[in-house]
Amino acid sequence: MQEAMFYQIGKENEVICELCNHHCHIKEGKRGICGVRENRDGKLYSLVYGRLVSEHIDPIEKKPLFQFLPGSRSYSIATVGCNFRCLHCQNYDISQYPHLYGGDITGRERTPESVVEAAVAADCASISYTYVEPTIFYEFAYACSKVAREQKLKNVFVSNGYMAPAVTRHLAPLLDGINIDIKAFTDDFYKKVCKARLQPVLDNVRLMHDLGVWVEVTTLLIPGLNDSSQELRDIARFVKSVDPGIPWHVTAFYPTYKMTDREPTPVETLRRARDIGLEEGLHFVYEGNVPGEGGENTYCPSCGTELITRFGFSIRQNRVTDGCCSDCGQKIEGRWS
């Protein structure tokens, strides 16, 4: 165990967790919504510090981050637990593990130094904190991030964007890139499907960008729930209001976990979403989970030249030169080196 960061002591040994926007009030012997932070004798502890259930070497495109060190590899880690309860979670077996197994915590013990050593040995350019919401293992992610920065590795979060503003500000100096899910654009969806709220996510997209972190946004399109043209337009308009250069990934849903009553997302829906994003003024909109459809490629927003050609997570061509279009010289937003 590791004493948690970001909490206050309340009355009668209660603690108030201030890590994310749930602000859980946790009584003695109980845990927060995430299932991995517990009040013991009036102190809050992380039960997953250094207890990894996933360690993989991934292409950075899998996060997905398309304009952040394209073609590089990222050492990806996770613990169990999550502060959302998404009905369609593709990683529910680890994100909901404590709730599925009576509070059990599992994982292989690792140190920040051993994680960074493994990343360097695998010739990775970054460490990604991913697969579950990384905020819930913040203490370990932050410790790894400090060691990674010393070794010239980049740090990446793949996140639901629900961390508290103070946490965002604390993390940003060590964070190089983040992909944040905007899962829908209604509070109703967030409450029913994720057991959360929309506004804190939008606030974190803006705050991360304002703090200088490279931001990309993902929306998984679920037929009949969040794929109306108006809702897609609302998301695109919000992203543009932050920065039209933020890439927006519109990705295909496949039935899983507690949402097996929906059909997979048609390719036509992804194309419509991409068209809407471009119509609304976004520079980069990508179709995900449907390799080979052409919506994965990066085009110059000025002259239309195909700059990065992709198939799935692999890059077949990269014509971005010194962060610019190789044809017209237009600056292309991203982190290229």
Spatial order of the strands forming the largest sheet: 8-9-11-12-13-14-15-16
Outline type: globular
SSE pattern: EEEEEEEEEHHEHEHEHEHHEHEHEEEEEE
Task: Briefly note the structural class of the backbone.
Answer: alpha/beta
Helicity, as a percent range = 25-40%
Low-confidence stretches: none
Radius of gyration: 20 Å
Alpha plus pi helix count: 9
The CATH topology of the largest domain: TIM Barrel
User: Which CATH architecture of the largest domain?
Assistant: Alpha-Beta Barrel
* Count of distinct structural domains: 2
Mean pLDDT equals 97
How is this structure best described in words?
By secondary structure, the protein is an alpha/beta fold. The protein is 25% helix and 25% strand. Helix 8 (229-242) links the parallel strand 14 and strand 15 (248-252). The chain is built from nine helices and 21 strands. The chain has two domains: 2-46, no CATH class; 51-325, TIM Barrel. The chain has an eight-stranded mixed sheet with strand order 8-9-11-12-13-14-15-16. A three-stranded antiparallel sheet has the order 1-6-5, with no helix packed on it. Strands 2-3-4 form a three-stranded antiparallel sheet, with no helix packed on it. It has helices at 92-95, 97-100, 112-121, 138-150, 165-171, 187-194, 199-210, 229-242, 267-279, and strands at 2-3, 7-9, 15-17, 25-26, 37-40, 43-46, 51-52, 54-59, 73-78, 108-109, 126-129, 154-159, 177-181, 214-221, 248-252, 285-288, 298-299, 306-311, 314-318, 320-321, 324-325. The chain is globular, with a radius of gyration of 20 Å.
